[in-house]
C-alpha cells in the first residue's frame, strides 16, 4: 500500500538532514486501517504509509502526529507523548494554536483532549445512525477539496463544525472479496438526481459545550458549505456556499456568538462556479479573494464589512492556482500562478495597494511553495522536464539558505529515463492545447511506429507540465517501439473559464474532438503510423478511452479503460451536476452521454479493468457497459480486482495492472 514514509528535518545552519520520527518510534506494530481511515485515504488519494501527516501549534513548540488511528505529540527535545490509545480511530486531529488542546473526531462525534492532564472530553453526543459531527460528507471530500469538517478558533475557545445528516441519502452496496472472504459495505452515495445530505454548521463553545447554529437568509435552501476560516482574532467566522446547481457562489461572514451570518460577496456563472480562495488580513479589516468571476482566477482586495472590491490586484490571460499567506509587514500578497505559461508554476508577489506583479521563483518549471506565515522566506520544491525535484529554503531577498536535492534510487538512475517534449496542438476552436510526446529512443529511418495515447481528459485536472516525473510506463512503452502522447484538451484546469466551459452539458464531446486534433498533429510526424493507435486511461481517462473506441473507431484501434464512468446518472451529484446540470432539467443530455448506447460501434480491441470495491466510480458503470457489449455481440476482455477500490493500492494489483496495460496495447498494435 505504497512506500513507508518518515519525518525529517533540515537544518539551514549546518545544511544537514536528520530523521525526526519513523513509524517504529510511535508504534512497534502497525495496526490495520479501520474502514473510516481506508475511505479517507481514498478521498485524499493517499498511497503512502508511515508518517503521512503532521502539524505545528502556531504559538507553541508542539508537533502533532497522527498515526495508526491514534494521536502523538512531539516536543522540541524529541520526546513523544501518546495522547490516545483506543480501538476506534481518532480522525482528523488538530492542535490548538497554543498547543494546550487537541480536537478530533471519533465515532462520528467531536472530542477534545487536554495535553497537560490527558483528560478527554466529549464535545458532542447522541448522533443517530447516519449523522456525524465534525466530518465532511462524500461530496465535500471527493469533489470540493474539503477534507475537514471542523475548525478551531485562534483562542481555542470555540470550534466551528459541520453536522452531516445522510439518513435520506441513497445506500449503495459495495461488494468485494479480500483474502478469500466476502466484504460487503453499504455506503451513503449521493447519486445524480437523488438526495444530498442535509448539512448545517454550528459553533461550539468549549466552556459551555453548547452549539450555536449558523443562520442566514436563504440558509435553508439546498446548497454546499465549505471554506470555513476564522478571522479577527476569533470574532468572525467566514464561510462559502454553492447552490445545488453550482451556479451561485456566496461568501458569508458570521458572528460566532449569535450565529447570525450574512452574504458579503455573491457571484454567479452561466456554466458553473467554484469555491473561491479567501484570506483575511490581520492588520486591517480587509481580505484577499480569488475567483474566476472575470474569466480567469484572479486576486482582488475587498472590504471585510461591506465586501466591496477595493482593488483588482491581478489581471490577464492566466490563472492563480494557489493563494499563499500575505506578507503584511511588506504590504504584499503572494500567490502561485500560470503567468509564465500554462505548463509552468511560479511564486509571485503584488503590492496590496496595487502595482506590478513580480515573479519570485527563478528556475523554469513547476514550483510547489510553502511561504513563511509572517516573513519573506519560503520553501521551494521545484523541478522541470529532465531536472528532478529539489527543495530549496530561501530567506529575505531570495537568498538560498539551504538546498536538498531529491535522492534518486540508483536503480532508477541506471534506467536512463527520458523526459517527453512539450508540443502544441491547435484545436478546432482555435485554442492552443499542450501535449507531451515521448518517441522511441532511436528512430530508424523509414520506419513508422504505433502510438499510445495516455489520457485523462476530465475537467478540473491538468496533466501536462514542465516538471519531472519518472514516467516508467511511458519509457517502457517507448523502449518497445511505441510513440507515447498525452494532451490536455479543452475542459482541463488552469486555462480560464472560456477554455473549460465548452464541456458544460456535453461531457465527452469536446474532449474527444481535441484528442483527435492531437492525432492530426502526430500524423504529420514521419515516424508515426496513424493506422495503429492505442489509448489507455483510468477513471475519467477510462471514460475517454471508451469515448475514443466507440465514437472514433476509425482512429483508435485498441484501448484499456480503467474504472470508467460510463453513465453520468450513476455518478455523484457534486461532480456531475456541476458539468451536466440537474437531472430533472437536463435528462436528454444525460441520456445522450450514456456510453453504453454506443457499444455496437466497437471495432477494435477493448480491455476493461475495474476494482470491484470501487466506492467512487462504482462497478455498476463497467457492469452496464458489459451488458451493452454482450447485447451488441461484441467481444472484449476484462480484468477485475476483487479487493481494490478506485485506486489499485496493493503492490500486486498495481504491478499486474501496469504490466497488463503494456502487454495488451503492444500485443494488439
Automatic annotation (TrEMBL):
SUPFAM superfamilies: alpha/beta-Hydrolases, DPP6 N-terminal domain-like. InterPro entries: AB_hydrolase_fold, Peptidase_S9_cat, Peptidase_S9B_N, Serine_Prot_S9B/DPPIV. Residues 477-669 form the Peptidase S9 prolyl oligopeptidase catalytic domain. Residues 78-388 form the Dipeptidylpeptidase IV N-terminal domain. One of its GO terms (biological process) is proteolysis. It comes from the Bacteria. GO terms for molecular function: dipeptidyl-peptidase activity; serine-type peptidase activity. Transmembrane segments: none annotated. This is Peptidase S9.
Amino acid at each position: 500500500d505504497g512506500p513507508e514514509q518518515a519525518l525529517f528535518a533540515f537544518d539551514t545552519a549546518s545544511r544537514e538532514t536528520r530523521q525526526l520520527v519513523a513509524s517504529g518510534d510511535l508504534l512497534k506494530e502497525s495496526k490495520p486501517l479501520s474502514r473510516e481511515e481506508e475511505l479517507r485515504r481514498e478521498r485524499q488519494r493517499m498511497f503512502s504509509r508511515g508518517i503521512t501527516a503532521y502539524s505545528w501549534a502556531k504559538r507553541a513548540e508542539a508537533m502533532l502526529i497522527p498515526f495508526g488511528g491514534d494521536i502523538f505529540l512531539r516536543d522540541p527535545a524529541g520526546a513523544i507523548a501518546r495522547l490516545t490509545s483506543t480501538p476506534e480511530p481518532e480522525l482528523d486531529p488538530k492542535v490548538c494554536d497554543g498547543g494546550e488542546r487537541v480536537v478530533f473526531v471519533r465515532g462520528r462525534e467531536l472530542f477534545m483532549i487536554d495535553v497537560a492532564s490527558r483528560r478527554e472530553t466529549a464535545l458532542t453526543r447522541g448522533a443517530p445512525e447516519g449523522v456525524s459531527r465534525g466530518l465532511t460528507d462524500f461530496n465535500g471530500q471527493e469533489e470540493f477539496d474539503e477534507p475537514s469538517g471542523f475548525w478551531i478558533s485562534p483562542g481555542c475557545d470555540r470550534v466551528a463544525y459541520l453536522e452531516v445528516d445522510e439518513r435520506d441519502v441513497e445506500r449503495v452496496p459495495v461488494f468485494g472479496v479480500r483474502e478469500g472472504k466476502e466484504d460487503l459495505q453499504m455506503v451513503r452515495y449521493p447519486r445524480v438526481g437523488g438526495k444530498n445530505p442535509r448539512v448545517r454548521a454550528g459553533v461550539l463553545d468549549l466552556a459551555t459545550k453548547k452549539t450555536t447554529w449558523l443562520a442566514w437568509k436563504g440558509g435553508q435552501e439546498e446548497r454546499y458549505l465549505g471554506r470555513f476560516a476564522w478571522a479577527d482574532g476569533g470574532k468572525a467566522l467566514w464561510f462559502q456556499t454553492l447552490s445545488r446547481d453550482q451556479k451561485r457562489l456566496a461568501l458569508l461572514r458570521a458572528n460566532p456568538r449569535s450565529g447570525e451570518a450574512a452574504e458579503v460577496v455573491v457571484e454567479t456563472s452561466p456554466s458553473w462556479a467554484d469555491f473561491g480562495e479567501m484570506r483575511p488580513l490581520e492588520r486591517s479589516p480587509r481580505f484577499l479573494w480569488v475567483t474566476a468571476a472575470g474569466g480567469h482566477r484572479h486576486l482582488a482586495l475587498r472590504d471585510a464589512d461591506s465586501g466591496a472590491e477595493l482593488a483588482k490586484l491581478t489581471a490577464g490571460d492566466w490563472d492563480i492556482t494557489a493563494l499563499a499567506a500575505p506578507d503584511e509587514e511588506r504590504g504584499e500578497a503572494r500567490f502561485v500562478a500560470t503567468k509564465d505559461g500554462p505548463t509552468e508554476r511560479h511564486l509571485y508577489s503584488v503590492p496590496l495597494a496595487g502595482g506590478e506583479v513580480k515573479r519570485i521563483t527563478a528556475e523554469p518549471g513547476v514550483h510547489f511553495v510553502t511561504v513563511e506565515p509572517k516573513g519573506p522566506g519560503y520553501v521551494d520544491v521545484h523541478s522541470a522536464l529532465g531536472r528532478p525535484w529539489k527543495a530549496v529554503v530561501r530567506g529575505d531577498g531570495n537568498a538560498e539558505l539551504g538546498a536538498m536535492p531529491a535522492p534518486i534510487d540508483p536503480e532508477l538512475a541506471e534506467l536512463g529515463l527520458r523526459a517527453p517534449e512539450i508540443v502544441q496542438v491547435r484545436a478546432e476552436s482555435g485554442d492552443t492545447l499542450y501535449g507531451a510526446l515521448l518517441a522511441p529512443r532511436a528512430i530508424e529511418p523509414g520506419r513508422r511506429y504505433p502510438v499510445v495515447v495516455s489520457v485523462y481528459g476530465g475537467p478540473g485536472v491538468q496533466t501536462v507540465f514542465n516538471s519531472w516525473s519518472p514516467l516508467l510506463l511511458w519509457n517502457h512503452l517507448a523502449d518497445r517501439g511505441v510513440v507515447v502522447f498525452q494532451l490536455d484538451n479543452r475542459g482541463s484546469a488552469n486555462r480560464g473559464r472560456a477554455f473549460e466551459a465548452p464541456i458544460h452539458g456535453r461531457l465527452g464531446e469536446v474532449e474527444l474532438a481535441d484528442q483527435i486534433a492531437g492525432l492530426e498533429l502526430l500524423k504529420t510526424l514521419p515516424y508515426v503510423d496513424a493506422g495503429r493507435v492505442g489509448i489507455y486511461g483510468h477513471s475519467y481517462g477510462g471514460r475517454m478511452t471508451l469515448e475514443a473506441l466507440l465514437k472514433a473507431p476509425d482512429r483508435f484501434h485498441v484501448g484499456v479503460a480503467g474504472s470508467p464512468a460510463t453513465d453520468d446518472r450513476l455518478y455523484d451529484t457534486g461532480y456531475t451536476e456541476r458539468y451536466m446540470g440537474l437531472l430533472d432539467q437536463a435528462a436528454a443530455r444525460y441520456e445522450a452521454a450514456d456510453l453504453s448506447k454506443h457499444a455496437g460501434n466497437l471495432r477494435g480491441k477493448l480491455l476493461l479493468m475495474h476494482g470491484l470495491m470501487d466506492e467512487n466510480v462504482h462497478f455498476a458503470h463497467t457492469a452496464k457497459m458489459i451488458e451493452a457489449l454482450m447485447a451488441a455481440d461484441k467481444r472484449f476482455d476484462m480484468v477485475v480486482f476483487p479487493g481494490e477500490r478506485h485506486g489499485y493500492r496493493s503492490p500486486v494489483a498495481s504491478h499486474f495492472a501496469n504490466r497488463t496495460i503494456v502487454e495488451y496495447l503492444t500485443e494488439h498494435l
